[in-house]
Amino acid sequence: MSTDRPHSVSVAGVIVDDQGRALLIKRRDNGKWEPPGGVLEREETIPEALQREVLEETGIKIALPATLTGVYKNMTGLIVSLVFRCEAADGTPTTGDETRALRWATREEVTELADEAYAIRVLDALDAASPPAIRAHDGVKLV
Prior knowledge:
Elements: E1 8-15, E2 22-27, E3 33-34, E4 37-39, H1 46-58, E5 60-62, E6 67-74, E7 79-86, E8 88-91, E9 99-105, H2 107-113, H3 116-126, E10 133-137
Parallel strand pairs: 1-7, 6-10
Antiparallel strand pairs: 1-4, 2-3, 2-9, 5-8, 6-7
Helix pairs in contact: 2-3
């Protein structure tokens, strides 16, 4: 049995509008542009966590089921992230406790705004990657 610390599991939702743009959030804690998401809570299912995190960070309720478009491992932070392409069901994009700003971004804007490790998640979701992409990164760059 390994004495290493365990991995955590997170979810992220890439909401795509009818113009093919993705909704990005600018996080309050680090100022980075990313898709909305966060760590699963102990008693939560994956869809429940996805819906909760997206709602908390954007004010938008997403339709379920969402489409899994990628699995990403942060090799440094030991976080496995499940990323889903989502459709907005209700609500208006609004900032909150964890979100400094929101922005609908084109593919080109995504690559300019987000670190490579997060931009690829959004691009995979925009492409509706099937089968889902499986990638590793160091928190910033793909490895």
